[in-house]
Write a structure and sequence with these properties.
By secondary structure, the chain is mostly beta strands. The chain is built from one helix and 28 strands. The chain has a single domain, classed as YVTN repeat-like/Quinoprotein amine dehydrogenase (Methylamine Dehydrogenase, Chain H, 7 Propeller). A four-stranded antiparallel β-sheet has the order 1-28-27-26, with no helix packed on it. A four-stranded antiparallel β-sheet has the order 2-3-4-5, with no helix packed on it. A four-stranded antiparallel β-sheet has the order 6-7-8-9, with no helix packed on it.
Protein backbone atom coordinates (compact mmCIF):
# COMPACT_ATOMS: atom_id res chain seq x y z
CA UNK A 1 0.00 0.00 0.00
CA UNK A 2 1.14 3.50 -0.60
CA UNK A 3 0.41 6.84 1.13
CA UNK A 4 -2.90 8.07 -0.20
CA UNK A 5 -3.25 11.53 -1.70
CA UNK A 6 -4.81 11.21 -5.15
CA UNK A 7 -5.94 7.66 -5.87
CA UNK A 8 -6.99 6.57 -9.33
CA UNK A 9 -9.61 4.44 -11.13
CA UNK A 10 -13.27 5.04 -11.77
CA UNK A 11 -14.73 8.47 -12.35
CA UNK A 12 -16.22 10.33 -9.41
CA UNK A 13 -19.64 10.13 -11.00
CA UNK A 14 -19.43 6.36 -11.03
CA UNK A 15 -18.47 6.35 -7.37
CA UNK A 16 -21.56 8.35 -6.56
CA UNK A 17 -23.87 6.20 -8.65
CA UNK A 18 -22.46 2.99 -7.20
CA UNK A 19 -23.48 4.08 -3.73
CA UNK A 20 -27.13 3.86 -4.79
CA UNK A 21 -26.76 0.11 -5.26
CA UNK A 22 -25.09 -0.44 -1.88
CA UNK A 23 -27.30 -2.32 0.57
CA UNK A 24 -27.47 -0.21 3.71
CA UNK A 25 -29.81 -2.62 5.53
CA UNK A 26 -27.95 -4.35 8.33
CA UNK A 27 -26.82 -3.94 11.91
CA UNK A 28 -23.93 -1.53 11.24
CA UNK A 29 -24.04 2.23 10.78
CA UNK A 30 -21.71 5.19 10.97
CA UNK A 31 -21.84 6.18 14.65
CA UNK A 32 -19.57 9.19 14.54
CA UNK A 33 -17.56 11.32 12.13
CA UNK A 34 -15.00 13.81 13.39
CA UNK A 35 -13.28 16.25 11.05
CA UNK A 36 -9.76 16.45 12.51
CA UNK A 37 -8.00 18.15 9.57
CA UNK A 38 -4.24 18.17 9.34
CA UNK A 39 -1.84 17.84 6.43
CA UNK A 40 -0.31 14.83 4.76
CA UNK A 41 -1.49 11.69 3.03
CA UNK A 42 -2.48 8.52 4.85
CA UNK A 43 -2.29 4.75 4.58
CA UNK A 44 -2.44 2.41 7.56
CA UNK A 45 -4.41 3.07 10.75
CA UNK A 46 -3.93 1.08 13.97
CA UNK A 47 -5.32 0.79 17.48
CA UNK A 48 -3.64 0.44 20.85
CA UNK A 49 -6.70 -1.28 22.32
CA UNK A 50 -5.29 -1.62 25.83
CA UNK A 51 -4.05 1.98 25.89
CA UNK A 52 -7.32 3.16 24.24
CA UNK A 53 -5.52 5.10 21.54
CA UNK A 54 -6.05 5.36 17.81
CA UNK A 55 -2.82 5.79 15.82
CA UNK A 56 -3.14 7.70 12.53
CA UNK A 57 0.18 8.21 10.72
CA UNK A 58 0.35 11.00 8.13
CA UNK A 59 2.89 11.11 5.32
CA UNK A 60 4.24 13.82 3.04
CA UNK A 61 6.25 16.97 3.80
CA UNK A 62 3.86 18.06 6.58
CA UNK A 63 3.13 14.57 7.92
CA UNK A 64 3.26 13.40 11.50
CA UNK A 65 1.96 10.64 13.77
CA UNK A 66 -1.39 11.75 15.15
CA UNK A 67 -2.95 10.05 18.17
CA UNK A 68 -6.60 10.11 19.24
CA UNK A 69 -8.71 8.72 22.06
CA UNK A 70 -10.09 5.42 20.78
CA UNK A 71 -13.45 5.94 22.51
CA UNK A 72 -14.14 9.62 21.82
CA UNK A 73 -11.86 10.36 18.82
CA UNK A 74 -10.61 13.43 20.66
CA UNK A 75 -6.95 14.37 19.98
CA UNK A 76 -4.37 13.05 22.43
CA UNK A 77 -1.13 14.28 20.88
CA UNK A 78 1.27 14.11 17.96
CA UNK A 79 4.81 13.15 17.07
CA UNK A 80 5.46 16.06 14.71
CA UNK A 81 8.73 14.91 13.15
CA UNK A 82 7.66 11.36 12.26
CA UNK A 83 6.14 11.14 8.75
CA UNK A 84 5.06 7.64 7.79
CA UNK A 85 2.41 5.48 6.20
CA UNK A 86 2.07 3.01 9.07
CA UNK A 87 2.59 2.58 12.80
CA UNK A 88 1.94 -0.06 15.47
CA UNK A 89 2.26 -0.28 19.24
CA UNK A 90 3.62 -3.13 21.36
CA UNK A 91 1.16 -3.11 24.30
CA UNK A 92 3.66 -4.82 26.62
CA UNK A 93 6.66 -2.53 26.22
CA UNK A 94 4.56 0.50 25.20
CA UNK A 95 6.89 1.01 22.29
CA UNK A 96 5.52 2.40 19.04
CA UNK A 97 7.11 1.87 15.63
CA UNK A 98 6.61 3.92 12.46
CA UNK A 99 7.52 3.02 8.87
CA UNK A 100 10.03 5.76 8.30
CA UNK A 101 13.51 4.99 7.00
CA UNK A 102 15.19 4.42 9.33
CA UNK A 103 12.29 3.01 11.39
CA UNK A 104 11.31 5.33 14.25
CA UNK A 105 10.73 3.81 17.69
CA UNK A 106 8.74 5.91 20.16
CA UNK A 107 7.11 5.77 23.59
CA UNK A 108 3.35 5.23 23.21
CA UNK A 109 2.64 6.91 26.57
CA UNK A 110 4.71 10.07 26.18
CA UNK A 111 4.83 10.14 22.34
CA UNK A 112 8.52 10.89 22.57
CA UNK A 113 11.00 9.39 20.09
CA UNK A 114 13.26 6.75 21.64
CA UNK A 115 15.57 5.93 18.74
CA UNK A 116 15.78 5.04 15.06
CA UNK A 117 16.48 1.59 13.60
CA UNK A 118 18.33 1.15 10.31
CA UNK A 119 16.58 -1.09 7.78
CA UNK A 120 16.96 -1.81 4.07
CA UNK A 121 14.25 -1.70 1.43
CA UNK A 122 11.36 0.75 1.43
CA UNK A 123 9.26 0.37 4.61
CA UNK A 124 5.55 0.23 3.81
CA UNK A 125 3.29 -2.18 5.71
CA UNK A 126 3.73 -2.97 9.38
CA UNK A 127 2.35 -5.54 11.82
CA UNK A 128 2.82 -6.38 15.50
CA UNK A 129 2.98 -10.11 16.30
CA UNK A 130 2.02 -10.87 19.93
CA UNK A 131 3.42 -14.41 19.64
CA UNK A 132 6.96 -13.28 20.35
CA UNK A 133 6.54 -9.52 20.71
CA UNK A 134 7.98 -8.65 17.34
CA UNK A 135 7.27 -5.96 14.77
CA UNK A 136 7.16 -6.95 11.10
CA UNK A 137 8.05 -4.26 8.56
CA UNK A 138 7.17 -5.01 4.93
CA UNK A 139 8.68 -3.60 1.75
CA UNK A 140 7.87 -3.91 -1.97
CA UNK A 141 11.58 -4.35 -2.63
CA UNK A 142 14.12 -6.69 -0.96
CA UNK A 143 14.33 -7.45 1.81
CA UNK A 144 10.58 -7.98 1.68
CA UNK A 145 10.29 -8.32 5.46
CA UNK A 146 12.37 -7.00 8.34
CA UNK A 147 11.58 -8.26 11.85
CA UNK A 148 12.27 -6.13 14.92
CA UNK A 149 12.21 -7.04 18.62
CA UNK A 150 9.39 -4.92 20.09
CA UNK A 151 11.01 -4.60 23.50
CA UNK A 152 14.62 -3.94 22.53
CA UNK A 153 14.06 -2.23 19.18
CA UNK A 154 16.72 -4.33 17.45
CA UNK A 155 16.55 -6.10 14.09
CA UNK A 156 16.06 -9.85 14.60
CA UNK A 157 16.31 -10.76 10.94
CA UNK A 158 15.05 -10.35 7.40
CA UNK A 159 13.44 -12.78 4.97
CA UNK A 160 12.52 -13.12 1.33
CA UNK A 161 8.77 -13.69 0.98
CA UNK A 162 9.02 -14.51 -2.72
CA UNK A 163 7.21 -11.39 -3.84
CA UNK A 164 5.84 -8.03 -2.80
CA UNK A 165 3.94 -8.14 0.50
CA UNK A 166 0.79 -6.29 1.42
CA UNK A 167 -1.24 -6.95 4.56
CA UNK A 168 -0.11 -9.67 6.98
CA UNK A 169 -1.73 -11.40 9.93
CA UNK A 170 -0.49 -13.56 12.80
CA UNK A 171 -2.29 -16.50 14.39
CA UNK A 172 -0.60 -15.63 17.69
CA UNK A 173 0.82 -19.15 17.85
CA UNK A 174 3.90 -18.91 15.67
CA UNK A 175 2.59 -18.58 12.13
CA UNK A 176 2.39 -15.40 10.06
CA UNK A 177 0.46 -15.18 6.78
CA UNK A 178 1.25 -12.52 4.15
CA UNK A 179 -0.76 -11.53 1.06
CA UNK A 180 1.78 -11.41 -1.81
CA UNK A 181 0.28 -8.78 -4.10
CA UNK A 182 2.17 -9.56 -7.32
CA UNK A 183 2.07 -13.37 -7.14
CA UNK A 184 -1.57 -14.23 -6.35
CA UNK A 185 -0.54 -16.24 -3.32
CA UNK A 186 -0.38 -16.15 0.45
CA UNK A 187 3.02 -16.78 2.06
CA UNK A 188 3.05 -18.91 5.20
CA UNK A 189 5.89 -18.03 7.57
CA UNK A 190 7.34 -19.70 10.66
CA UNK A 191 7.52 -16.71 13.01
CA UNK A 192 10.19 -18.28 15.21
CA UNK A 193 12.57 -19.53 12.52
CA UNK A 194 11.76 -16.68 10.10
CA UNK A 195 11.38 -19.06 7.18
CA UNK A 196 8.68 -19.37 4.52
CA UNK A 197 7.12 -22.81 4.86
CA UNK A 198 4.55 -22.61 2.03
CA UNK A 199 2.87 -20.45 -0.57
CA UNK A 200 -0.88 -20.91 -1.00
CA UNK A 201 -1.40 -20.48 -4.75
CA UNK A 202 -4.68 -18.73 -5.65
CA UNK A 203 -3.96 -18.23 -9.35
CA UNK A 204 -6.68 -20.74 -10.29
CA UNK A 205 -9.19 -18.01 -9.40
CA UNK A 206 -7.54 -15.61 -11.85
CA UNK A 207 -7.01 -13.00 -9.14
CA UNK A 208 -4.43 -10.22 -9.19
CA UNK A 209 -3.38 -7.18 -7.18
CA UNK A 210 -3.77 -8.62 -3.69
CA UNK A 211 -4.34 -6.28 -0.78
CA UNK A 212 -5.91 -7.18 2.54
CA UNK A 213 -5.64 -10.38 4.57
CA UNK A 214 -7.51 -11.41 7.71
CA UNK A 215 -7.74 -14.60 9.76
CA UNK A 216 -10.27 -16.50 11.82
CA UNK A 217 -7.78 -18.08 14.22
CA UNK A 218 -10.28 -20.45 15.86
CA UNK A 219 -11.45 -22.09 12.64
CA UNK A 220 -8.23 -21.61 10.63
CA UNK A 221 -9.87 -19.56 7.87
CA UNK A 222 -8.02 -16.93 5.80
CA UNK A 223 -9.77 -14.14 3.90
CA UNK A 224 -7.50 -12.89 1.10
CA UNK A 225 -8.70 -9.84 -0.83
CA UNK A 226 -7.97 -8.95 -4.46
CA UNK A 227 -8.76 -5.93 -6.63
CA UNK A 228 -8.58 -7.58 -10.06
CA UNK A 229 -10.18 -8.65 -12.31
CA UNK A 230 -13.06 -7.78 -9.98
CA UNK A 231 -12.92 -7.02 -6.26
CA UNK A 232 -13.36 -10.21 -4.30
CA UNK A 233 -12.43 -12.14 -1.18
CA UNK A 234 -10.90 -15.59 -1.61
CA UNK A 235 -11.69 -17.67 1.48
CA UNK A 236 -9.04 -20.29 2.25
CA UNK A 237 -8.35 -23.10 4.68
CA UNK A 238 -5.34 -21.73 6.58
CA UNK A 239 -3.99 -25.18 7.37
CA UNK A 240 -3.63 -26.46 3.80
CA UNK A 241 -4.39 -23.57 1.42
CA UNK A 242 -7.51 -25.17 -0.06
CA UNK A 243 -9.90 -22.61 -1.49
CA UNK A 244 -13.32 -22.78 0.17
CA UNK A 245 -15.21 -20.13 -1.79
CA UNK A 246 -15.08 -16.56 -3.10
CA UNK A 247 -17.35 -13.60 -2.41
CA UNK A 248 -17.56 -10.12 -3.97
CA UNK A 249 -16.34 -7.06 -2.13
CA UNK A 250 -15.95 -3.34 -3.02
CA UNK A 251 -13.78 -1.42 -5.53
CA UNK A 252 -10.23 -0.66 -4.35
CA UNK A 253 -10.49 -2.97 -1.35
CA UNK A 254 -7.54 -2.32 0.95
CA UNK A 255 -6.96 -3.09 4.64
CA UNK A 256 -9.19 -5.67 6.32
CA UNK A 257 -9.74 -7.46 9.61
CA UNK A 258 -11.59 -10.33 11.28
CA UNK A 259 -13.65 -9.86 14.43
CA UNK A 260 -13.84 -13.15 16.38
CA UNK A 261 -16.54 -11.72 18.66
CA UNK A 262 -18.95 -11.33 15.74
CA UNK A 263 -17.44 -13.90 13.34
CA UNK A 264 -17.18 -11.30 10.59
CA UNK A 265 -14.51 -10.56 8.01
CA UNK A 266 -14.57 -6.80 7.52
CA UNK A 267 -13.04 -4.86 4.63
CA UNK A 268 -12.81 -1.20 3.71
CA UNK A 269 -12.42 0.04 0.14
CA UNK A 270 -11.65 3.27 -1.69
CA UNK A 271 -15.13 3.15 -3.14
CA UNK A 272 -16.25 4.25 0.32
CA UNK A 273 -17.90 0.98 1.27
CA UNK A 274 -17.36 -1.38 4.22
CA UNK A 275 -18.24 -5.00 3.43
CA UNK A 276 -19.14 -7.37 6.26
CA UNK A 277 -18.80 -11.10 5.45
CA UNK A 278 -20.51 -13.28 8.04
CA UNK A 279 -18.96 -16.65 8.81
CA UNK A 280 -21.92 -18.85 9.70
CA UNK A 281 -19.68 -21.92 9.87
CA UNK A 282 -16.22 -22.88 8.58
CA UNK A 283 -17.86 -23.78 5.27
CA UNK A 284 -20.68 -21.20 5.06
CA UNK A 285 -20.12 -17.51 4.35
CA UNK A 286 -22.38 -14.68 3.20
CA UNK A 287 -22.08 -10.96 2.50
CA UNK A 288 -24.06 -9.68 5.46
CA UNK A 289 -23.94 -5.94 4.78
CA UNK A 290 -22.40 -3.28 2.57
CA UNK A 291 -22.25 0.05 4.36
CA UNK A 292 -21.58 3.36 2.59
CA UNK A 293 -19.08 5.57 4.39
CA UNK A 294 -16.96 8.17 2.54
CA UNK A 295 -15.20 7.90 -0.85
CA UNK A 296 -11.54 7.17 -0.21
CA UNK A 297 -12.11 5.52 3.20
CA UNK A 298 -10.05 2.47 2.31
CA UNK A 299 -8.22 1.77 5.57
CA UNK A 300 -9.55 0.33 8.79
CA UNK A 301 -8.84 -1.17 12.18
CA UNK A 302 -11.12 -3.03 14.58
CA UNK A 303 -11.40 -1.97 18.21
CA UNK A 304 -11.79 -5.45 19.69
CA UNK A 305 -13.04 -4.05 23.01
CA UNK A 306 -16.07 -2.21 21.58
CA UNK A 307 -16.35 -4.02 18.20
CA UNK A 308 -16.18 -0.61 16.50
CA UNK A 309 -14.55 -0.24 13.10
CA UNK A 310 -12.40 2.89 12.64
CA UNK A 311 -11.65 4.37 9.24
CA UNK A 312 -10.62 7.72 7.72
CA UNK A 313 -10.90 9.81 4.58
CA UNK A 314 -10.66 13.25 3.06
CA UNK A 315 -13.49 15.13 1.41
CA UNK A 316 -12.63 15.60 -2.27
CA UNK A 317 -13.15 18.26 -4.88
CA UNK A 318 -14.20 17.60 -8.50
CA UNK A 319 -12.02 15.36 -10.61
CA UNK A 320 -9.82 17.58 -12.86
CA UNK A 321 -10.59 17.46 -16.57
CA UNK A 322 -6.95 16.61 -17.29
CA UNK A 323 -6.80 13.79 -14.71
CA UNK A 324 -4.69 10.81 -15.86
CA UNK A 325 -6.46 7.71 -17.18
CA UNK A 326 -7.92 5.48 -14.49
CA UNK A 327 -5.83 2.63 -13.11
CA UNK A 328 -7.60 -0.72 -12.99
CA UNK A 329 -8.89 -1.74 -9.59
CA UNK A 330 -8.79 1.70 -7.98
CA UNK A 331 -11.05 4.72 -7.82
CA UNK A 332 -10.50 8.22 -9.18
CA UNK A 333 -10.90 11.10 -6.77
CA UNK A 334 -10.34 14.81 -7.11
CA UNK A 335 -7.98 16.82 -4.91
CA UNK A 336 -8.52 16.54 -1.15
CA UNK A 337 -10.17 19.61 0.35
CA UNK A 338 -7.99 21.47 2.90
CA UNK A 339 -8.86 20.71 6.50
CA UNK A 340 -11.31 17.96 5.54
CA UNK A 341 -9.50 14.88 6.89
CA UNK A 342 -12.13 12.92 8.83
CA UNK A 343 -12.18 9.99 11.25
CA UNK A 344 -15.13 7.58 11.12
CA UNK A 345 -16.44 5.24 13.81
CA UNK A 346 -18.71 2.41 12.68
CA UNK A 347 -20.69 0.08 14.92
CA UNK A 348 -24.10 -1.26 15.83
Amino acid sequence: MRPFCLAVVIAAGIVMSSSIAVAQNGPYKVLKTVKVGGDGGFDYISADVEGRRLIVPRSGPMGQVTVFNLDTLEPVGTIPTVKSGGAVVDPKSHHGFSTTKPITMWDSNTLQTIKTIDVDGRPDGIMFDPYNERVWVFSHMPPYATVIDGKEGTVVGTLDLGGQPEEAVSDGKGTVYVNITDKANVAVVDAKKLTVTAHYDLSSKGVDNGSGLSLDVKNHILFAYYRLPSPQAVIINAENGNIITTLPTAMNVDTVGFNPATMEAISTAGEGVIVFIKENSPTSFVVEQKLQTMPGARNMVIDTKTNHVLSMAFEYGPLPANAPPPVAGRIALGPPLPGSFTLLMVGK
